[in-house]
Amino acid sequence: MVTVIWGAVLVVIKADRVIPPEWNPLAPLNVTEPVTLFTNWRLDRALATPAACLAALNTAGRFDVMDDFEASNTCHIRTRVDLAGVGQVLINPVETTCAIALRMAMWEQHSLQPAATEILDTTVTGIDHIGSYNCRRIRSASGSSNRWSTHATAEAIDIAGFQFADGTRSRLLDDWDANDARARFQRAARNGACDWFQLTLSPDYNRLHADHFHVQSRGWGLCR
């Protein structure tokens, strides 16, 4: 018998009982498994160590593991991967952290594809991005900041649009304010990103984000 404390819930797993892995809080995260009450807890466990993150990403990612990049104490990429795709989606190769790549994989599997099927009757085949690593300080509508951006450590990625199996594509700059299915998909994509990233900023946040989603692997839960 195994006892696990999950939040305020005491979970008892009997050793002689076979349970689906997605319901086993001790099982390693597999991106393709259905979401359960334990998924976010298992995601946190996967993100806790480089080895666990890379193992989880290997269930749904196309990537090469790279040596850590260290430009300075404030600008670096640790647990660096060269990401080329997640799930059914191709991505123009981007150097980023395993944490961003794994959160991208969860977003694609559990948010983007269901939304594309329901709203657009198609599937997502590509994600257009503006980049992840950029050794710079935070930009704001009122000017530059003294604080370093999460891009300086590749703990963020900017998403500009999506490509679909029916041959169409949707760019935030073109479709966010439209009153159509693509706009509804983009809002569903933003809301889904809020489930898997620690901070999500969309064109609703300010004019600096008019053409992209800014999503982070760390933050305080802002979703706008």
Q: What does the radius of gyration come to?
A: 18 Å
Which runs of at least 5 residues are low in confidence (pLDDT < 50)?
none
Span between termini? 43 Å
SS field, number of helical segments: 5
Strand content: 25-35%
| Number of DSSP strand runs | 14
- Helix fraction? 25-40%
List the secondary-structure elements in sequence, H or E: EEHHEEEEEHEEEEEHHEE
Main sheet makeup: 8 strands, mixed
Shape: globular
**What does the average pLDDT come to?**
93
Task: Quickly give the structural class.
Answer: alpha+beta
Gist?
The chain is α+β, with helices and mostly antiparallel strands and 224 residues long.
List keywords for this structure.
alpha+beta, 224 residues
Textual characterization of the structure:
The protein is α+β, with helices and mostly antiparallel strands. It has a domain at 61-216. Helix content is 27%, strand content 32%. The protein contains 5 helices and 14 strands. Strands 3, 6, 7, 8, 11, 12, 13 and 14 form an 8-stranded mixed sheet that branches. A hairpin with a 5-residue loop joins strand 4 (69-70) and strand 5. Helix 2 packs parallel to helix 3 and helix 3 (98-120) runs antiparallel to helix 5 (181-196). The longest helix is centred in the middle third of the chain and has 23 residues, at 98-120. The radius of gyration is 18 Å and the shape is globular. The protein starts with a strand and ends in an 8-residue tail after the last strand.
